[in-house]
Design brief:
Elements: H1 4-32, H2 45-53, H3 59-65, H4 70-80, H5 86-108, H6 112-164, H7 169-179, H8 184-195, H9 202-214, H10 217-232, H11 236-293
């Protein structure tokens, strides 16, 4: 009769190897850009596997059942200008869940250090496949939002200077974008203007679309005020001068918030290194007694 522990370990190993090889193959495919080689086995492999498992089912419904929040994922894809790959996200999550379940089952039939290693490997694979793929996109989107938000106060100040010499707002924004060619904000403004059909509300639509994608308080303040001022016939120069102070204050609060988060992040490992030795010191007599009594794994 086949040993149950050996069987579960073999299943877990096979699932882990399958998931890793699938990821590696898809990464190699993406780097090689084999766009015409649609007959290759790993061409959109996760999408193919999803279609086999969930034929005809909406990816949004499947993701909801797995606890995957796609609203933020779609928002981050818009910011990072990345094509959403919902089916791949779902399949990676399933790979992780499968490996985690197999490792838990194998750990039950293991002992001592082997149990910890098996469970740790399964948990690590689960965390990477279920969370890390979206976490990378989250970090990229947050970094872009922070970079763009940091550039808004300076951009507003330069825009005010251009408007003071009598230039209209659309031309002023375009000229600033040409001067700030290494700026993310300038790149986004230029892209938005180019993608928009420059009609009656051309530049307004471009700015509102950009503000909707990033959803940054300072950018929202800037766009809402100048669009409203333009529609109501109010002086945009005076509007920009008025909101400049508010934007600077909001940006300062955001910088302080990020600094506080960074400080807390540094304090956590320091606190752990301070308290862990104390906990070990306090628990050592009890652990020694358990070891002498023969209790443990």
């Amino acid at each position: 009769m086949i040993d149950s522990m050996a069987l579960l370990t073999a299943v877990m190993t096979a699932m882990f190897v399958f998931a890793v090889m699938t990821l590696i193959a898809e990464k190699l495919y993406s780097s090689d850009k084999k766009e015409d080689d649609k007959d290759w086995l790993f061409y959109n492999f996760s999408d193919k596997l999803y279609d086999i498992m969930y034929a005809g089912k909406d990816p949004g419904d499947v993701a909801a059942k797995l606890g995957l929040g796609l609203e933020k994922y779609y928002d981050n894809c818009l910011i990072a200008k990345t094509e959403p790959k919902v089916k791949s996200v779902i399949m990676y999550a399933l790979y992780g869940i499968g490996i985690m379940m197999a490792s838990c089952a194998a750990a039950i039939f293991s002992r001592g250090t082997t149990r910890i290693v098996i469970f740790g490997a399964g948990f690590g694979a689960f965390a990477y496949l279920y969370y890390y793929q979206q976490h990378k996109l989250d970090k990229k989107a947050e970094r872009m939002k922070d970079d763009l938000g940091d550039e808004i106060p300076r951009f507003v100040g330069l825009l005010y200077a251009e408007l003071q010499i009598g230039m209209n707002v659309e031309d002023a924004i375009r000229i600033l974008c040409e001067r700030m060619d290494d700026s993310l904000l300038a790149y986004e403004f230029t892209s938005a203007f180019n993608e928009s059909q420059m009609g009656y509300r051309g530049w307004q639509d471009a700015l509102e679309g950009l503000a909707f994608r990033y959803n940054i308080p300072t950018l929202n303040i800037f766009v809402q005020n100048i669009v409203t001022a333009y529609d109501e016939g109010v002086s945009i120069t005076e509007t920009v001068a008025r909101i400049s102070k508010e934007i600077n204050e909001n940006h300062l609060l955001k910088v302080k918030e990020r600094a506080g988060i960074a400080t807390n992040t540094l304090l956590i490992p320091i606190a752990l290194f301070q308290f862990l030795p104390m906990i070990v010191f306090l628990m050592y007599p009890a652990l020694s007694q358990l070891s002498i009594s023969g209790i443990g794994f």
